[in-house]
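FORM 7B: Structural annotation worksheet

SECTION A. Query
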Amino acid sequence: MSRVTLRDVAERAGVSTAATSQALNDRGNLRPETRDRIKAIAASLGYTPNKSAAALRSGRTMTIGFVMATNSLQDGRRALQRARQLDALVRAGSVRGFTVTVLPDSRPDLLAGAQLDGLYFPDPADERAILREALARGIPVAAVDLTVTAGGMTIRTGYAAAVRAGLAHLAASGAERIGFLVDE
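SECTION B. Predicted structure
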């Protein structure tokens, strides 16, 4: 079964594609009964707008990229944190009509064909090449705990401040030999 087009809806309704577009987008000066009839026909045919055509018209794809680390040495906590961030991005994006595309950090070349409205970097310290490529292509980016000077937004988590506060507390408590353990 082929995809139902705007033209199919227009032909069934006996109106122009322009009138059909106006009705489905709640624009123009159509009579309410005409608008309702066109919408009912579109629904009965199972019409859904072509996202590619809409992106060409609006210049927006309604797609956000999520950069996923491909480093096999990533510990389980980082993987779980990224999975939670991805879940949060998908949930928040879907409410606003966005879809999310996952891109591996090891493939900055994939940005050449990607149609993205923005790119989210949960841990850009590991993803410098793809971050540079995104900025070079003019893709807006949001990065966690990395200052992005051009075309980006920085999301601060407060890790540095938390470490400083923790060290200050230990020093104030009389600690003289402070160790720092990491799980790598």
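SECTION C. Observations
The chain has a mean pLDDT of 81. The domain at 63-159 is CATH 3.40.50.2300 (Rossmann fold).

SECTION D. Sign-off
Analyst initials: ____
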